[in-house]
Amino acid sequence: MTETNTVRIEKLVAGGDGLARMDDGRVVFVPGVLPGETVEIALAEKASDFGRGEVLSITETSPDRREPPCPYVSAGCGGCDWQHISPEAQHRAKAEIVTEAFARTAKMEITPRLRTLDDSARRTTVRMVAGDDGRLGFRKAESNDIVVVDRCMVAHDTINEMIAKPVLEGAGEVTIRVSPRTGDRGVWCHEGQMVRDLDPSIVRGARGSMKETVGDQTYKVALGSFFQSSPEAADLIVDVVKRRLNGLELEHGGTLVDAYGG
C-alpha cells in the first residue's frame, strides 16, 4: 500500500525539488511545489533517511504559484522544473540555493546580487530527443517517453525554426546550438542519426565547432562542449569580472583565462 503524508514545504533545493520533513523526521523531496505550501504526497521512493514524493493535492497554495505559461507542461514535459513559479520567486530561490551552498561547503556567508536577463534572452543550446518519426521533443519527467513540441518558449527563435519540422531519420538524442551574434548553427546527433535536408552551412557532430562572441572576444565552441546557455548570461559574468578588476592592469601584460572546468 502506498504511504501518504501531508507535509509543509520548507524550501526549494538544487535540482528544483521542494524539501519537506515528515512526522518521523525523514526528509522528502517533492517536485512541482513552492516554499510555504502544504501538500498531500504519496511516497514514490523511500530510503532510510529520505524519500521522494508525488503531489496528490495542494491544501495551502503559495501566492508565488502561477499557471505554467508553457502549453507542454500539462502533457508532462520534463524540460523545465519551475514553470509553476513566478519569475520573482524563481530569482529568490536561486539566490537562496547559492547562499546555502556557499555556507554549507565553503563556510562562507555571501549576499548574492541578482541581475536578471532581459525577456528576449533565450537558451541558445538545447538537448532534445527524437522519436521514430524524427519529430523532436523532450522527455517526460522521470520517464523515457517523449513529449513532441513544435517550439520551446525558453529556446531562441533560431532553434525553434530548426525544430519546427521532422529532421532526423531514426530515434535518439540530439543537441542543437545556435549563435545569434555570429549566425552559426550546429546539430549533434548523439546516436549518429541522419539529418534530412540539412543546410550545408550548419555544423555537424560533437567535434564540429561554431563561433560565439562575448564582449570583445570571439570563442571557438565545439558542439559537445559546455558554454553558457545564452551569450547574455556570459556577458553578465564578464562584466562582473571587469568590475572586480576595476581597471587594474595585469602584471607583465598577462591574459585572464576562464579555466573553470565544471
Search tags:
262 residues, 6-stranded mixed sheet
Instruction: Report the β-strand fraction as a percent range.
Output: 25-35%
Tally of helical segments: 3
Given the C-alpha coordinates, what overall shape results? globular
* Main sheet overview: 6 strands, mixed
Describe this structure in words.
The chain is of the alpha+beta class and 262 residues long. Among the domains are: 4-60, OB fold (Dihydrolipoamide Acetyltransferase, E2P); 125-237, OB fold (Dihydrolipoamide Acetyltransferase, E2P), CATH 2.40.50.1070. Helix content is 16%, strand content 30%. The protein has 3 helices and 16 strands. The strands form 4 sheets. The protein has a 6-stranded mixed beta sheet. Strands 9-8-7-11-12-14 form a 6-stranded mixed beta sheet, covered by helices on one side. The chain has a two-stranded antiparallel ribbon with strand order 10-13. The longest helix has 20 residues, at 87-106. The mean pLDDT is 89.
Summarize the structure.
16% of the residues lie in helices and 30% in strands. The chain has 262 residues and is α+β, with helices and mostly antiparallel strands.
Give the topology, please:
Blueprint lengths: L3 E5 L2 E2 L5 E4 L5 E4 L7 E9 L3 E11 L26 H20 L18 E6 L5 E4 L6 E3 L8 H7 L4 E2 L2 E7 L6 E5 L4 E2 L7 E2 L4 E6 L2 E6 L8 H15 L17
Parallel strand pairs: 4-6, 12-14
Antiparallel strand pairs: 1-5, 2-3, 3-4, 5-6, 7-8, 7-11, 8-9, 10-13, 11-12, 15-16
